[in-house]
Design brief:
There is one protein chain. This protein has 569 residues and is α/β, with parallel strands linked by helices. It is built from 18 helices and 23 strands. The longest helix is centred in the last third of the chain and has 19 residues. The strands form 4 sheets. Strands 16, 17, 18, 19, 20, 21, 22 and 23 form an 8-stranded antiparallel β-sheet that branches. Strands 1-5-4-2-3-6 form a 6-stranded mixed β-sheet, with helices on both faces. The chain has a 5-stranded mixed β-sheet with strand order 8-7-9-10-11, with helices on both faces. Helix 10 packs parallel to helix 15 and helix 12 packs parallel to helix 13. A hairpin with a 5-residue loop joins strand 22 and strand 23.
């Protein structure tokens, strides 16, 4: 069956010379042909993501075209004379896929607003809302290695598509011939006719204006703050530097070898600010610059990681660390400035640290827990907006380095996060403190909540089957004891049920179904397992509560080891 598909592609996939070359190179290699064609690249609420190359299980102009035809059908099913916005990052073929998508939307009678150069994902979310589009697309694979690309689809609210809409797109994709069923118009012709229009600088300026409006301490002097910044060869370079300049951060040293767009990511093969390797060039530059803080944004600039100068050494902070610091800073300072709204509300994902609950409770702030995926945080902002209470939303974050303040977008935004992190650093510097000092103060007040996340890669068909088997086994044979502490509650979001293991009583979980298992221990710790929605990985998240830094670190390490063993790795 795979060989028939391969032969068809050899005949018809002639629109990209790279694909023609690859198809010839894999001739006779059953393993490579099977992996490229054994399934169609899946389209879900996160859109498409996969390895760039030839085949139905790859990112190429044909799989992108099929997805775009499906999204075009969705737009045309809900509105006449609809419009979409499109953005792309620095990845290999991102600009090619963006132009392809634009020409297909145009052929389907849909007005296209296209950024004329690479832009961060949150700027796409903003453009959809600001230009009142019916949908949006950003071509990116976020922080994945260079061989990947992806296609994120957005609805009119600026959030990624919901399950119902994604299913509609998928149904069209399944009925459309990948070669002959996709409408396409010449890009230049559509541009000349005004069906495709480049997004102007006015939209970019309006976005930056909305970001700047999220400042907390607007009068603080930031001129003496020293920053080292790396965009990791991605889309954050211009907007991050622009917003820092606007608020008065003038001493910014950009890592030269990671400044310009480069989808090969030559100095950061895994351009993910969650890992230390992505900071290596920035840390080297810091030796001569001696900055207060290091910032690293991923290729589509929706995530940001930081390293903090503490006594001449640089400590990398986790996504939970930064989320806790920002929530604490926003609540503390807005409460002091009397700018905190009545009934403030913050949002976090279920895999993010419970320390946020302690901080929120102190200031009377409601804290909503949602499933993993920033679209669920976006949904909470939309709910408040529909109630006429958007000002109640003050902050949302997920432990995977995604943060958003303000309701101008519906996706995580490394630009606004970078701004707030710099402002926060400068404020505490004026108090004689580093962010390390502040985090220690928070731990001393509320407890040493130490967290960790570990991923296990399971690629290919066999990898998918292994992940499925692990989740099934955990449901059939859940652990009763983890690191000497009894499991007292299990939340199975796949079955929408919460079970008290001591009494046997169960409750219905109100969040949407998702393949996530949460195990809560008697000692206050937790162990969470979920397959990634965008990568061939299964992930564990642990949270340990210690009486001291040493105790918390030891318990966290032990929990990670126990979780690894439970999954069989």
């Amino acid at each position: 069956m795979y060989n028939k598909q391969y032969e068809l592609w050899c005949q018809k996939a002639t629109g990209d010379d790279d694909l023609v070359k690859e198809l010839k190179e894999i001739s006779g290699n059953e393993e490579l042909i099977s992996d490229a064609f054994y399934k169609n690249l899946e389209f879900g609420t996160a859109g498409l993501r996969g390895v760039i190359g030839a085949g139905t299980n790859r990112m190429n102009i044909y799989t992108v075209g099929q997805a775009t035809q499906g999204l075009a059908a969705y737009v045309n099913s809900v509105t006449q004379n609809g419009s979409v916005a499109i953005a792309y990052d620095s990845r290999i073929k991102s600009d090619v896929f963006a132009r392809m998508a634009a020409s297909i939307f145009a052929a389907n009678g849909i007005k296209v607003y296209l950024y004329k150069e690479l832009m961060p994902t949150p700027m796409l979310s903003f453009a959809v809302r600001y230009l009142k589009c019916d949908a949006g697309v950003v071509v990116t694979a976020s922080h994945n290695p260079a061989k990947y690309n992806g296609y994120k689809a957005y609805g009119p609210d600026g959030s990624q598509l919901g399950p119902k809409e994604a299913d509609f797109v998928l149904s069209i994709m399944q009925s459309v011939d990948i070669f002959d069923g996709v409408k396409q118009m010449d890009f230049d012709e559509a541009l000349n006719n005004g069906i495709i229009e480049y997004i102007g600088d006015d939209v970019i300026e309006e976005y930056l204006k909305n970001v700047e409006a999220q400042r907390v301490e607007k009068d603080i002097d930031l001129s003496n703050l020293k920053v080292v910044y790396t965009p990791l060869n991605g889309a954050g370079n211009k907007p991050v530097r622009a917003i820092l300049k606007k608020i008065g951060v003038t001493n910014v040293a950009v890592v030269p070898e990671q400044e310009l767009p480069d989808g090969n990511f030559p100095t950061a093969p895994y351009p993910n600010p969650e890992i230390r390797q992505a900071f290596e060039c920035a840390l080297k530059l810091a030796e001569t610059e001696n900055p207060d803080i290091l910032l690293a944004t991923d290729p589509d600039s929706d995530r940001v990681g930081i390293a903090v100068n503490t006594e001449g050494e640089y400590k990398l902070f986790s996504g939970n660390d930064v989320g806790v610091l920002l929530l604490n800073y926003i609540l503390t300072r807005r409460n002091a400035n009397k700018t905190l709204p009545k009934n403030p509300l913050a949002v976090k994902t279920i895999v993010s640290t419970e320390l946020c609950q302690k901080i929120a409770d102190k200031y009377g702030c409601a804290l909503v827990n949602v499933l993993t995926g920033f679209k669920f945080i976006g949904e909470q902002i939309t709910i408040l907006t529909e109630k006429g209470e958007p000002e109640r939303y003050i902050f949302g974050f997920e432990e995977s380095y995604g943060y958003l303040a303000g309701d101008y977008a519906r996706d995580k935004d490394a630009v606004v996060a970078s701004m707030l992190i710099c402002e926060m650093t400068a404020y505490y510097k004026s108090q004689g403190k580093t962010l390390c000092d502040v985090l220690d103060d928070i731990y001393k007040e509320f407890g040493y909540y130490y967290t960790a996340q570990k991923s296990f890669t399971c690629e290919g068909q066999s990898g998918m089957e292994k992940i499925k088997s692990i989740m099934e086994d955990l449901r059939q044979n859940p652990p009763t004891l983890i690191e000497g502490s009894r499991v007292v509650k299990i939340n199975d979001y796949g079955k929408s049920v919460s079970i008290d293991t001591l009494t046997g009583k169960s409750e219905i979980l109100t969040l949407p179904q998702s393949n996530v298992l949460c195990f809560f221990m008697e000692n206050g710790g937790s162990f969470i397992v979920r397959p990634s929605g965008t990568e061939p990985k299964i992930k564990i998240y642990v949270c340990a509560v210690g009486n001291s830094a040493q105790d918390g670190e030891a318990k966290k390490t032990a929990l990670v080891d126990a979780g690894t063993s439970i999954l069989g790795f």
